């Protein structure tokens, strides 16, 4: 029997990947639609933090806190993906804002993003995928 090319990741492995990166995609609901946007983030304790400004992303997480967040990557042998499902909340207390300010979280885009949002994970899952000759499928670099 051949071994499956798909491998589940432990919770600790998922957190290790989350802590080792700072860019992912946030999925949220707004006006009956699902939206997905790229964000940079930081980990503080066992929550994700991101900054935002007034707009659809903030409106979406305020109106419906149920969100999903995903990061992924690959190399010559494997691809991987980590998905976090949880609740988002705007950090409004002085203590919460000071904690977010003290984290590694910095906006990548030089715009005013003065709202801190925390995602408290309710479920974390991850998988690794053994790749079959990925160089045969890769798009040539220009």
Query: Number of helical segments?
Result: 3
- Report the β-strand fraction as a percent range: over 45%
| Terminal-residue CA separation | 41 Å
Class computed from helices, strands and strand pairing:
alpha+beta
Oligomer: single chain
Number of strands: 8
Are there runs of 5+ residues with pLDDT below 50, and where? none
Order of helices and strands: EHEEEEHEEHE
Instruction: Report the sheet with the most strands, covering strand number, pairing sense and barrel closure.
Output: 8 strands, antiparallel
Outline, from the CA principal axes? elongated
Protein name: Pyridoxamine 5'-phosphate oxidase family protein
Pfam families: Pyridox_ox_2
InterPro entries: Pyridox_Oxase-rel, Split_barrel_FMN-bd
Q: What features would you describe in this structure?
A:
This protein is of the alpha+beta class. The chain contains three helices and eight strands; from the N terminus they run βαββββαββαβ. Strands 1, 2, 3, 4, 5, 6, 7 and 8 form an eight-stranded antiparallel beta sheet that branches. The protein is elongated. InterPro entries: Pyridox_Oxase-rel, Split_barrel_FMN-bd. It holds the Pfam family Pyridox_ox_2. It comes from Janibacter terrae.
């Amino acid at each position: 029997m051949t071994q499956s090319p798909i491998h589940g990741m432990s919770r600790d492995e998922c957190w290790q990947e989350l802590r080792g990166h700072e860019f992912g995609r946030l999925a949220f609901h707004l006006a009956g639609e699902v939206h997905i946007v790229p964000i940079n983030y930081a980990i503080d304790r066992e929550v994700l933090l991101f900054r935002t400004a007034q707009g659809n992303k903030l409106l979406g997480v305020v109106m419906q806190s149920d969100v999903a967040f995903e990061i992924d990557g690959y190399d010559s042998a494997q691809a991987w993906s980590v998905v976090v499902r949880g609740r988002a909340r705007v950090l409004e207390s002085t203590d919460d804002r000071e904690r977010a300010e003290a984290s590694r979280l910095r906006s990548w885009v030089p715009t005013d993003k003065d709202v801190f949002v925390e995602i408290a994970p309710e479920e974390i899952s991850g998988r690794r995928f053994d790749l079959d000759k990925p160089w045969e499928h890769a798009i040539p670099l220009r």
